[in-house]
Structures are given as structure tokens and as C-alpha cells.
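Q: For a teaching session next week I want to show students how multiple molecules come together into a single three-dimensional assembly. I've collected the sequence lines for a complex. Could you give me the predicted C-alpha cells for the whole thing so I can convert them for display?
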Amino acid sequence: MVYVKWVVRVVFWTLVLAFLHYTLPQHDIVRITDTYEKRINPGENALFWSNANTGENVAATERDVFFIQTFRTNDRPMIYRNEDTGWGWPPYFKFDTSNLQAEASDLISKKSAETAQWVAVRHYGWRNEFLSIYPNAVAIWPVAGPDARIIPWFNIVVLILLAALFWAIRVRWKRFWEGRREGQDSEWREGQR
Amino acid sequence: MVALGRLLIFGLIVLSLIYLGLSWHFRAQRRKRMERDWEETGRPGNREAYIAEGMAQYEHSLRRKLLWLVYILPVSAITLLIWLTNFN
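A: Of course. Below is the structure for the complete assembly, covering every listed component.
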């Protein structure tokens, strides 16, 4: 029984952490090398793609998606998709996909460039080659260099609030069950008299 | 538009549940305090009338009206987010 309890706990917390890691915004410092548009047919990986852009037909099974090709500061490639999240989940309320694509292609900087233009990309999601999934870029802005550091204030605030909420529920939960246990005890004692 | 409708409907349901829950909780808390108040001030007059008067005062208080923040805060947060993501 103890093992079952621990397995359930570990699975639960892994899922919670994975969910947060996927959904909360993260920042990468990258060099954009190209932007392109590709037709995709989401299948088993459909969970990791957005729906149609806001206002477009949601029943279409295949559509064109913007991509942004980049190299990170460690010289390894990272590809972002660029899709609307619209009014759906995750709640980024991103509608300006085409504008973002224009900004991205304006900041292209190849390896051969004399002075590389580094940019910060705010994104959510994961890159996984086996599932063919890509993080979704939400915002792009130029930074001074590859050492630029971005403090994730938003994540700090969200995580603190979540921890506070969890703690508040946990304390009340424990108090509730302890109250019940004490109640049972006293009834039992009364029976003994 | 379907997605917007879904967000509005589910948002309204969830926020209304929070609003109703909190309003019940605060009213119950207030009533308990009025009951204690009545005993501590030396049991003046009718107990029910005393509590009813206190509750009527509460219904018109700023504290009670602040509960509307349950609706106002998330809507403002979403508006701010839309502006920050798309137009900033």
C-alpha cells in the first residue's frame, strides 16, 4: 500500500510539473536564421498544436503554420512554431501571429553576419523530435548580446501564488480531517463511560 | 467566435461559483461575529433583531461591494494580457 501511495504521488507531481513546464512562458536568447511556412497535418501530436487561427475555419484538418528557425547561444538549432492561441488554452490571448512573423523575419541574422543580432524569444511548449512538436513563440524582441539575461517575474509571481493556494487548501484539508478524527475519539470515549 | 463564446460561458460559470461561495462564506462569518457581538455587549434587546440589523448594515457596506472584484479582476487581467501580447 505504501508503494502504491508513493507511485500515485510521484505520478501526480510529475504531471503537475510537466503541465507547468509546458504552459508557463520561458525565454530563449537566439539568432533567427530564417522564417518559413509549412503545411501540417496534426495526428497523434494534435494535442501539441493550436487550433486554426482566430476567425478561421476550425473544422479544417490541415493548414499552413508559420515557423521560425533559430540558433541558440550554444550553437544548437531551435525551431519555433508561430500560431494563434486565440481565446483558448493556454491563455496567452495571442492573435498577432502574422505580425510576429514579420518581426521575426526583420531580425534575421546569419552566422556570416559581421555583427550578429541576438533576440529574446518568449515561448511556451516543448521541442520534441520524436513527436514533431515545436514550442510556440509568443513575443520576440532584440537584445544586446548572447549574454542578455531575462528575469522571469511572471513565473515567479505565478508560482508563488500557486504555492500559496496549494498551502491554503492543504492546511484546511488537514484541519478538516483532524477535526473529524477528534470528533470520533470523543464519541468513542463517551461510549466507554 | 465559438472559442470566445466558450471562454465567456465557462468563465462566467467558474467566476459565479467563486462569487457565490465567497459571498456565502463572508456572510456566515459576519453572522457569527454579530452573534458574539450581541453576547459581549451585554445581550441588548432581541437577539434576532440585533443580528438582522447588523446583517443589513453589512449588505450595504463597501466590504460587501468589494466582492465584485471577483468578476472585475480576471476581466481586467485578460484585457491587460491581450494588450501586452498583441499591441505592445
